Amino acid sequence: MPVALWNTHAIEIIAGIQGQIGMSRRQSLLKKRRRRSVIAFEMIQLDRSAAEPLHEQLYRQIRDELKSGSFADAASRLPSSRALASDLGISRLTVNLAFSKLQAEGYLCAKAKSGTFVANPLPENFLVVDRFAGNTCGRIPRRVQKARQPIERRARTSGRVKAIPDQRAGTQFDLGALGAGAGISLVPGLPAVDEFPIDIWERLRSQALAQKGTHLLRHASSRGDADLRKAIATYLCDFRGARCHPDQILIVGGMQQAMLVSAMALLDPGEPVWIEDPGFHQARRVFILAGAKVVPKPLDDEGIVIARSPKEKIPKIVHVTPSHQYPLGVTMSFERRKALLEFAHAYDAFVFEDDFYAEFRFAGPPLPCLQGIDSFGRVIYAGTMSKILYPSLRLGYVVAPEALIDSLVKIRSTMDQHSSAIDQATLARFITEGFFLSHIKRMRKIYAERRAIFIKEFNELLGDRFTLQIPEGGLNMVAWLKQEQDFPKISSVTVQIGVKPSPLSFYCVRATPKPAFVFGFAGWTPAQIRESLMKLALSLHRARISHGKR
Fold this sequence. Notes:
This protein is of the alpha/beta class and about 550 residues long. Helices cover about 45% and strands about 10% of the residues. A hairpin with a 3-residue loop joins strand 1 and strand 2. The longest helix has 28 residues, at about 435-460. It is globular and about 85 Å long. Mean pLDDT is about 85; it is low at about 5-10, about 20-25, about 30-35 and about 125-140.
């Protein structure tokens, strides 16, 4: 063996022996280092049989990956030489040789006590900037930028995507379904997450993990955790007037998935679904995604209007919010409930009962659910934990007629198998140990206080411009403009100051109600509610928006 090759081989052997010394002490340091490393060169393939030295192969592949990648300041750290050598099964000397060459050519830079980072800019970008530095103040001319940018072709998307009535794009999705963002926005639909008992939840979560261990890390039942389904069935029968047993319950990832699963199990493309108008905007999106022909139906003082023309097709599903119509707050009358059930029975349709907000009623006890008075098996009942507990807990439930439940489970299983087993087990304990009911009672009291403050302050500060409609329950209110012509100006002011009630028209399909805004109050303290309403009143005054008649 030539001396040079023998030396290289000996160095690698010695390095390997040294790497074994004090391994137990170094392993923890290595793991910590890996956690801090951001760039993982998992695509590197070294060929020990090639004529090209290993360090040259490593240098070339890292250089090519850096040239083709895009690295932000917070995501430009390389693994340590020891960590990379361990991952690739080579000596640390080989890695250091590759790193040294990359650093010499300007691709990497070392920071004392911090590690090795990708250089900014890379040599290729630096040369382009430097070439034009004399006449562009360090900026790349637009013609060069345009030439360097790859040609992007608009992706061809399906008609299903184009049909969804959602104009958001990019970072607008980061604000979530409500578009609330930071600050006191008074958007409707946001619960008081600041009042959630996180300490109790975490304790129950730890107990569930301690009891069931790795069982909760495996695939779970597509129907949902058995203890959770039993706990929900007991709660619904005792406190919502439902008639069901655990085998009729499917655990889902929130109300929208409950609607989507039901629609896909019952509907063929183009079949009609009736929705309330104005109504829950996400319901419209979900049913359109499922391929339904969405038919908006008007509302009166008793709820959804069932009357139809002789030429109008019979719906396969009727989506309603009988306990608290969203957004108007109408409670469906008993007579309308009976008529709706008889209609569904006569025409082989199903009623999808969306029972959110039912627990938060401030005039008398909560009304029993529609499912509890259904003698025909035509109601699919659904609820969510998003408003009762917190929105990011993507857990809800569907109570389906026995003849339908397996079809719904089959659809859910095809979508995403099941919800988080750990969250389900935690929620089951939260309910069975009494924390769920006590939390509802406590939140009802808190919301009643915030509701009273909102009504008082709103009427005092903005009563000259709005007529506030006060519903019996729910966590939102509709404020009708006294001067309809002021709607554009007020809309502009709300956007400018960050107090963002939703225009009532946002929830409409064909309905053309008078101009109004939908305000939320539940997610903010009395002081924050007062502050935001004062801010809105002052801004409207400064904008010289006319006063209405009292």
